[in-house]
Design a protein that fits this description.
By secondary structure, this protein is mainly beta. The chain has a single domain, classed as Lipoprotein localisation LolA/LolB/LppX (outer membrane lipoprotein receptor (LolB), chain A). The chain has 3 helices and 13 strands; from the N terminus they run ααβββββββββββββα. A 13-stranded antiparallel β-sheet has the order 6-5-4-3-2-1-13-12-11-10-9-8-7. Strand 10 and strand 11 form a beta hairpin. The N and C termini lie far apart (about 90 Å).
């Protein structure tokens, strides 16, 4: 009897010690997705980016783009992209404005047409300017539009990561059947993402090849979006970037798209 009492006592203390060593709660997929969205990325951003379009035969088309982003007073995002080179796309300008209770607004200005055109929701799965990104890829997506499941934890690119699968609650509301992201535990930056088509076949992969801390903000400096079905890829290399600059709100307007100037 004395022996049984000792065993129970030791077991109880062991359990208490194990419980003390465990985190207060196990993180779930949705919380990880929220942390990705809410990570520090500056109130404004301004980048010059080298873009390479690489086909299956490794032929390269080079483009130079400039990008500005801003979070407004309500926490909603705005994004402007301007194409500087080559001459065939020079002056093309693109604007995304996030809305609270509906899909983002998107507009594009094409110099050849000399007009600003709104991108319709039905065009969301189309290629943006010949890249491997679609218009929907450039839009914001609310965390609650998907269900998020933590699949596993592992090491990727030298960092401990959470592998999270996100599935649209409404299958008709996304061009993808699901997305899988490898999220760095310490900085909440996705280091890799896989995008699956409606047949649940792997369609595209997005990989961060170089990551750098700029003004205290972890920034993907080199990333590649590859369409594994067509063997076409888009490589983005940030030439320079700055955060929290004073930006004129008029930059994020259809008037800027049309004129290329701010008031």
């Amino acid at each position: 009897m004395k022996f049984r009492t000792q065993v129970i006592t030791v077991t109880a203390f062991t359990l208490l010690a194990l419980m003390a060593a465990l985190p207060a709660h196990a993180i779930d997929g949705r919380e990880i997705a929220e942390n990705v969205v809410n990570r520090e990325d500056g109130e404004t951003g301004h980048s010059l980016i080298n873009m390479d379009l690489i086909d299956a035969q490794d032929n390269v088309k080079n483009r130079i783009i400039e990008e500005w982003s801003m979070e407004d007073d309500e926490g909603l995002d705005r994004l402007v992209i301007v194409f500087h080179r080559p001459a065939s796309v020079q002056g093309t300008r693109f604007l995304v404005v996030e809305n609270e209770d509906r899909d983002d607004d998107q507009w594009i200005y094409l110099p050849a047409l000399d007009r600003v055109r709104r991108i319709a929701a039905s065009e969301g799965d189309q290629s943006f300017m010949g890249t491997d990104f679609t218009y929907d890829d450039l839009a914001t997506r609310d965390v609650d539009e998907d269900t998020h499941e933590l699949l596993r934890e592992e090491t990727f690119s030298g960092r401990e990561v959470y592998v999270v699968e996100s599935v649209p609650k409404d299958p008709d509301d996304s061009q993808y059947s699901r997305r899988v992201q490898w999220v760095a535990k310490d900085i909440w930056v996705p280091l890799k993402a896989e995008f699956y088509d409606k047949s649940d076949e792997l369609l595209k992969t997005l990989t961060v090849e170089e990551l750098e801390e700029v003004q205290g903000i972890w920034t993907p400096m080199v990333s590649v979006m590859e369409n594994v079905q067509t063997e076409h890829a888009t490589r983005l290399e940030v030439q320079k970037t700055r955060y929290n600059e004073d930006l004129n709100p008029d930059l994020f307007s259809t008037n800027f798209l049309r004129t290329g100037r701010v008031q």
